[in-house]
Amino acid sequence: MIRPGKMLREVLKSLTKKPATIKYPAKAANIPDRFRGRLKFEAEKCIGCKLCMKDCPANAIVIEKVGDKFEATVDLDKCIYCAQCVDTCPKKALRATTNFELAQLDKRKLKVKI
Ligand code: SF4
Ligand code: SF4
User: Fold this and answer.
1) I need a surface site. Which of 16, 35, 61, 81 has the fewest CB within 10 A?
2) DSSP letter at 35?
3) Ligand 1 atom 3 nearest Cα
4) Which protein residue's CA is at the shortest distance from atom 4 of ligand 2?
């Protein structure tokens, strides 16, 4: 049964409360420090062990030797942002950033060197 009195009480209560939503993207989102967003790779720390590739549950990361350095490529649409690769890396060559604005209209642009 509908109880108008109860509904009215809720409406009046919400008039005095701040909105739960934020005005993103007009206002910057407040991202927690430990948020797991786009990965960052520090090539000079990498030893090419490829443990990150082995542990990635989504097969989203590839480490390749190019010249005398290593390069990391990530499929942003395959990555599930679990940060397993970050935990696995023995040299701390990978870290998760707070960048979450990764949307693209062109799917090919989601395969990126990080
Ligand atoms: S686990 Fe770390 S050191 Fe090993 S290949 Fe991946 S990024 Fe490089
Ligand atoms: S964050 Fe997870 S899914 Fe993404 S590349 Fe690392 S291990 Fe793979």
Assistant:
1) 16
2) -
3) 46
4) 79
